[in-house]
Amino acid sequence: MGYPFGHLVGAWLLGKGFEWFRKEKLHQNIWFFLLLGAIIPDVDFLLKWVFGVHSHRTFTHSILFAIALGVIAYLVFLNINSKRSSQYGFALYTGIMTHLLFDLPDVYGIPLLWPFLGQISLVTLTPEAILPLFSHNLDGTRVIVKKLLVDTFLGVLWMFWLLWKGKVRF
Q: What is the pTM of this model?
């Protein structure tokens, strides 16, 4: 999928499906951790922007990362005596896993089983699929950046709408 809003929508649909199946509403804090988990694997972009280190789709796109962050969230909220500590940890883990699921069909793949295997993708790499990745077409890059900006704008707008409607609180 590749874009933040798409990852948010994927996690939101999963949460809504869970609500429908269980016939109960998710707590707003659980929604927060589910949606946070859906975008947090792309935090590795910050390393590139701040330090110039290319690390996208490395450790943060693995099952190990999802488990580690879920356990850390559980332990943090367990230590502050939260009744929902296990739910927060599981929601964060589930959000990260939805992100990974939506990145699997990408031709770049993800290191799902890091550090044991390399990139895994559900798409077969053919010369036709690979060649556009290495072209330095400025117009193509502009189109991708425009799509990314529109997607990010829609995602931010959606989060503000949820905040305004009282569906999410920070």
A: 0.71
